[in-house]
Amino acid sequence: MSAQVTVGVSLKMYFGHHEALDWCARVAGRVRQHPGVMSGAVRFFVIPTYLQIGPALDAFRDTPVLVGAQDVSPYECGPYTGEVAAAELVEVGARIAEIGHAERRRLFGETDAIIAAKAAATLRHGATPVLCVGETQPQTPTDSATTTVAQLQACLAGVPDGAVIIAYEPVWAIGAPHPAPADHITTVTTGLSAAIASDPARIGSVVIYGGSAGPGLLTRLGASVDGVFLGRFAHDPDALVSVLDEASVLASARQGLRSSGEVHA
């Protein structure tokens, strides 16, 4: 378990361009006053649309906030019309690439092999994949853990060494009124954490939860996750700041445990 807590936001395609710029400016103003984020105790990343990446980088300049992309090409630069290469994303300043979201799987037919190729391209160019995994239908917590660990292993097959952010997002909870039950999340994220802890190629990786995540969830989950991946609940900057506050409290508690020797990375 890392003492640092990770909070991410994907804007998907909800905002128009100027609306997204306004959101970034409002959030950046709050972040600059947030000790947890500014100290690095909370790792905060924002994933807008491709066209919003440049302005987001400008908005979050002089902060530790990481800006990323909602997808990345599995190919290197070349004759691939409509694709955006990892090399170019890193060149402009993106440090995160979201890969394998359930919507990409469902709407665009992405397979585990395609996702693995995208993860490989991302790591080759020094960025961090946010690798989304999750079962499509409700299962028992134990069965869900088995399913997602197998999915994770398939999506990392042949991928170069490097840390990843694993976003556990049960598909049936995405867009739902409430996240998955806390005991369900804990069982699955514990299984995912054990899987990456046993893989020397993934040193430094973390497991966060997405799928209707919002304020209050981190407090309920405590030590069972390394953070949360937010969607529509982060559209309200005040709600987002409340999650960052929760993350700061959790990071402080983890640091205290590490200092006392009770928690090991």
From TrEMBL:
EC class: isomerase
Pathway(s) the chain acts in: Carbohydrate biosynthesis; gluconeogenesis; Carbohydrate degradation; glycolysis; D-glyceraldehyde 3-phosphate from glycerone phosphate: step 1/1
Cytoplasm among keywords: yes
Subunit structure: Homodimer.
Highest taxon of the lineage: Bacteria
Protein's organism: Microbacterium invictum
Upper taxonomic lineage: Bacteria, Bacillati, Actinomycetota, Actinomycetes, Micrococcales
GO MF annotations in UniProt: triose-phosphate isomerase activity
Protein name: Triosephosphate isomerase
